[in-house]
Amino acid sequence: MTAATDPVKLMKQQVGKAAADLVKSGSIVGLGTGSTTAYAIQYIGERLKSGELKDIVGVPTSFQAEVLAKEYGIPLTTLDAINHIDIAIDGADEVDPQKNLIKGGGAAHTREKVVDYLADQFIVVVDAGKLVDRLGSVFAVPVEVIPMAVTPVMRAVTQLGGKPELRMGVKKAGPVITDQGNMVIDVKFDSIDDPVNLEKTLNNIPGVLENGIFVNCADLVLIGEVKDGQPVVREM
Ligand SMILES: O=C[C@H](O)[C@H](O)[C@H](O)COP(=O)(O)O
After folding, report:
1. Burial, 186: exposed, middle or buried (Cβ in 10 Å; 0-12, 13-18, 19+)?
2. Which of 4, 32, 71, 94 could pair covalently with 9 via S-S, beta carbons 3.0-4.6 A apart?
3. Phi, psi for residue 140 in degrees, rounded to 5
4. Which burial class, exposed, middle or buried, applies to 86 when counting CB atoms under 10 A from its CB (0-12, 13-18, 19+)?
């Protein structure tokens, strides 16, 4: 693995590697999405290539994860072909002290939620900048919406006290389109006091497919930090 030099990249790389080290031979592995998980996927591939790891099969949570897994030689499967997932490794945009998460900065939270909740062990990999006292402090909640329902869903989340913004593409005119062909509304709340209920309330709005609040799901949160110029990984 090429060493990263940027401190944030270094933290992501170290924490991704630490999670990849927890994967055992013979496992079915949920492969998350994002820049941190990308390092875990890379390192799982390197362990497979070196023969240290054998008989791994991955379940990708996005087109990005699928492409990376193929690049690093990780065989893939689908949920139709398996009856469980041993371990899932995935990033997050915010993590609170109860290990509740906001995910979906890469618009992949719908498939991630399916895979991460199915896993016997779900490991979250983040750099220290993702830790918050209360969900919603910094990040908006990504809400995947079917295209014809964007306007009524924006109205409904405004009535709940949120400030909605349709996520727009970068280097692409128009809105971001998810792997499912839908759109994403980022909803900023001043404060999320009850993530358990907000997750359900958002998903009950007609036209919403899934939102990025993950509660009671993470088993282990690994945090990458740089201390005295050295990358370290600690458990939450
Ligand atoms: O949709 C994307 C995912 O939920 C990511 O896992 C999340 O946004 C964290 O990504 P990153 O590791 O790039 O910060």
Report:
1. buried
2. 4
3. -85, 160
4. middle
Give nearest CA residue, ligand 1 atom 6.
91
112 annotated active-site: yes
Residue entry with tokens 């839908």: 182
Domains of the chain: 7-131+216-235 (3.40.50.1360), 141-210 (3.30.70.260)
Give me 93's structure tokens: 């945009």
Separation of alpha carbons 214 and 224, rounded Å:
20
Pull the structure tokens for residue 226: 């740089």
Angle, in degrees to the nearest 10, between helices 35-50 and 63-71: 30
Q: CB under 8 Å to 103, separation ≥6 — which residues?
A: 90, 91, 92, 93, 109, 112, 113, 142, 212, 214
ipTM above 0.90, yes or no: yes
**CA–CA separation, 53 vs 73, rounded Å?**
12
Could you tell me where the DSSP H helices lie in 21-143? 35-50, 63-71, 109-118
Given a contact cutoff of 8 angstroms between Cβ atoms, the answer to whether 224 and 236 are in contact is no
User: What is the chain's mean pLDDT, rounded?
Assistant: 96
* SS3 category, 188: strand
**What's the confidence (pLDDT) of residue 191?**
84
What would the two tokens of residue 139 be?
């990040």
Q: Which mutation among 17, 93, 141, 182 tests ligand 1's pocket best, with the greatest number of atoms within 8 A of CB?
A: 93
Q: Which residues are annotated as a binding site for substrate?
A: 33-36, 90-93, 103-106, 130
